[in-house]
């Protein structure tokens, strides 16, 4: 079948909750993908940073196949031989004390919300049903009803109410706003260290340290959503490391499986996860042996193949190349590691047209919020491949 026929099938039989570029991908390897016509593209989105280790990474694939032949799911009614080692390895790599495994990113966020509320009632002494969680404007934490209850994007919220109460929105990057918003009922501050979906928004220097100090002073749990920024993407295992800060809860997902399988986790540095007792929270697939085997290898690949250092090196080089593009329509080029954003002035007429042209030139990326293009290739990209990308990007973004 030709691309157009697949597009028609999706549009006819599928819900229209996405507006993808019309490229029908059938195969991937490393940073490259191929469409059904055999055209080759560089993937500069990495499934929103889920394939940091590159498409169809050989070692992860082997681990997945091997585990799939042995055991895939026991439920947590029983123990399995992958879960304990997964916990230990993940804790050692992220300097955490305890892990709670889930499947999607949104479930990790939901888990954190439940845990901090319970902690608030059990430990902090907040009256039942009165806990407050502070979040930031333009956040993205997922798509469930509770999570969209504190989204500030009307596209995400309109028509979906009634919403879950208990959230307070402040400006991102403003530590004083956090200090002012905290009350004795505040149990947690949930924030992305870099806002990804909002358009790669980097907070002012010192912000993470300041919010850490404020949360310590006020007895508020600091929760970092590192589902997009974590696991090497920004040139550090976790983006919080750029300011030498540790959250009380850190949420990861996406690249935890290298794109093979939905796996997420709540990492805990404090005793917050300790408030959850048997039966109070769970997931049939959470912590299953197939997920754990895949995640163990996906983490090994990040470390042993030096993908984190490579993200820092190639990211800096990529950003330098993007900054050299001279076009008054470009408002700003920003990023950290291989999470890069190019923002256009509104007069440029939107970022989508550039993404369409880049696709024709063999490079896949996606606009976010109308005026911003995010470049986030798999972390296995080489300097020569960054040059290849820049040779195509520069003439198109100069238009
Ligand atoms: C993608 C993402 C999520 C949601 O993850 P899903 O697996 O799509 O549910 C949550 N937070 C951030 C920062 C994300 O980028």
UniProtKB/TrEMBL annotation:
One of its GO terms (molecular function) is pyridoxal phosphate binding. Its EC number is 2.6.1.13. It catalyses: a 2-oxocarboxylate + L-ornithine = L-glutamate 5-semialdehyde + an L-alpha-amino acid. The modification N6-(pyridoxal phosphate)lysine is found at residue 254. InterPro entries: Aminotrans_3 (IPR005814), Aminotrans_3_PPA_site (IPR049704), Class-III_PLP-dep_AT (IPR050103), Orn_aminotrans (IPR010164), Ornith_aminotrans_bact (IPR034757), PyrdxlP-dep_Trfase (IPR015424), PyrdxlP-dep_Trfase_major (IPR015421), PyrdxlP-dep_Trfase_small (IPR015422). GO terms for cellular component: cytoplasm. Pathway: Amino-acid biosynthesis; L-proline biosynthesis; L-glutamate 5-semialdehyde from L-ornithine: step 1/1. Its cofactor is pyridoxal 5'-phosphate. One of its GO terms (biological process) is L-proline biosynthetic process. The keyword Cytoplasm applies. It is found in: Cytoplasm. Keywords: Amino-acid biosynthesis, Aminotransferase, Cytoplasm, Proline biosynthesis, Pyridoxal phosphate, Transferase. Catalyzes the interconversion of ornithine to glutamate semialdehyde. Belongs to the class-III pyridoxal-phosphate-dependent aminotransferase family. OAT subfamily. HAMAP family: Ornith_aminotrans_3. This is Ornithine aminotransferase. It comes from Pseudodesulfovibrio piezophilus (strain DSM 21447 / JCM 15486 / C1TLV30). The lineage of its organism: Bacteria, Pseudomonadati, Thermodesulfobacteriota, Desulfovibrionia, Desulfovibrionales.
């Amino acid at each position: 079948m030709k691309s157009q026929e697949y597009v028609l099938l999706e549009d006819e039989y599928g819900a229209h909750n996405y507006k993808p570029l019309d490229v029908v991908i059938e195969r991937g390897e490393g940073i490259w993908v191929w469409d059904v016509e055999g055209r080759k593209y560089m993937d500069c989105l990495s499934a929103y940073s889920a394939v940091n280790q590159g498409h169809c990474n050989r070692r992860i694939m082997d681990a997945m196949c091997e585990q799939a032949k042995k055991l895939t799911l026991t439920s947590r009614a029983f123990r399995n031989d992958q879960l304990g080692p997964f916990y230990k390895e993940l804790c050692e790599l992220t300097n955490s004390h305890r892990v709670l495994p889930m499947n999607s990113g949104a479930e990790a966020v939901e888990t954190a919300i439940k845990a901090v509320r319970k902690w608030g009632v059990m430990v902090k002494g907040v009256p039942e049903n009165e806990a407050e969680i502070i979040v930031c404007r333009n956040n993205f934490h997922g798509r469930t009803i509770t999570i969209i209850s504190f989204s500030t994007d009307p596209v995400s919220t309109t028509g979906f109410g009634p919403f879950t109460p208990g959230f307070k929105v402040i400006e991102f990057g403003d530590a004083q706003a956090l200090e002012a918003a905290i009350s004795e009922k505040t149990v947690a501050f949930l924030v992305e260290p870099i806002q990804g979906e909002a358009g790669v928004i980097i907070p002012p220097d010192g912000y993470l340290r300041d919010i850490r100090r404020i949360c310590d002073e006020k007895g508020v749990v600091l929760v970092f959503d590192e589902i997009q920024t974590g696991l090497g993407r920004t040139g550090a295992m976790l983006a919080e490391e750029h300011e030498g800060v540790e959250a009380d809860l850190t949420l990861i997902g996406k690249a935890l499986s290298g794109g093979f399988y939905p796996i997420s986790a709540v990492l805990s540095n404090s005793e917050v996860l300790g408030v959850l007792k048997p039966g109070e929270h769970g997931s049939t697939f959470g912590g299953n042996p197939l997920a754990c085997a895949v995640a163990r290898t996906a983490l090994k690949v990040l470390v042993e193949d030096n993908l984190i250092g490579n993200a820092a090196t190639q990211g800096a080089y990529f950003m330098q190349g993007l900054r050299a593009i001279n076009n008054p329509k470009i408002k700003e080029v920003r990023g950290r590691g291989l999470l890069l954003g190019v923002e256009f002035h509104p007069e440029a007429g939107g970022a989508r047209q550039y993404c369409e042209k880049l696709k024709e030139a063999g490079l896949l990326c996606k606009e976010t919020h109308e005026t911003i293009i995010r470049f986030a290739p798999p972390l296995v990209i080489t300097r020569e491949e960054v040059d290849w990308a820049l040779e195509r990007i520069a003439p198109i973004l100069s238009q």
